[in-house]
Amino acid sequence: MLLEKGTRTGLFFGATSGVITTLGLMVGLQSGTRSLAAVFGGVFVIAISDSMSDALGIHLAQESDPESTRGQIWAATLWTFASKFVVAISFLLPLIWLPLDQAVMISVVWGVLIVTVMSYLAARLQQAPAWRAVGEHVAIALLVVALSHYVGVWVHSAFA
Asked: Is 105 helix (H, G, I), strand (E, B) or coil?
């Protein structure tokens, strides 16, 4: 998998950020509100606003690197937006077809699968042991899910 540096940066960052941000939001909102409308709306807003935010962040980060070319900067920007947007939107599909609790569980599995694949590919590019990268990244993703759940539970108990 020989992708140009900017494309690789945007694709890996966007997809991973899309999983972590979207799953955290979904699980937290589901635990805190039990509302399909809140979870669906939150995911849709994240798909747009956070994708644009991360794309701008990557753009500025790449511009601050004197070794980045104009093409790499724009490739990273566009791939960050596109990959994060597509990944975030993909979490809406279970919400359309399944009850909220089932949709969130399926989304967690989907997110772990994406993180697993991205971690495996990154490890292969670095010629590092894949099991270590996959284990580390999946553990972080699941920690975000667990913390988001407990924050949602706390918000519900404190404000509902």
From this structure: helix
Reported as a pLDDT band with limits 50, 70 and 90, residue 3 is confident
User: For residues 14 and 81, is the Cβ–Cβ distance under 8 A?
Assistant: yes
Is residue 6 over pLDDT 70?
Answer: yes
Q: Say how far apart CA 108 and CA 24 lie, in whole Å.
A: 10
pLDDT in tens, 30-62: 999 999 999 999 999 999 999 999 999 999 999
- Tally of CB atoms within 10 A around 146: 11
Q: Are 43 and 88 in contact (CB under 8 A)?
A: yes
Q: What percent of the chain has pLDDT over 70?
A: 99
Identify the domain containing residue 26 by its residue range: 5-159
**Number of domains into which the chain is organized:** 1
How far is Cα 156 from Cα 28, in angstroms, rounded to an integer? Answer: 10
Contacts of residues 67-74 at CB distance under 8 Å and 24 or more positions apart, as own/partner, are 68/5, 68/6, 69/6, 71/4, 71/6, 72/4, 72/5, 72/6, 72/9, 73/6, 74/6
| 3-state SS class at 4 | coil
What is the full DSSP assignment across 47-93? HHHHHHHHHHHHHHHHHT-TT--HHHHHHHHHHHHHHHHHHHHHTHH
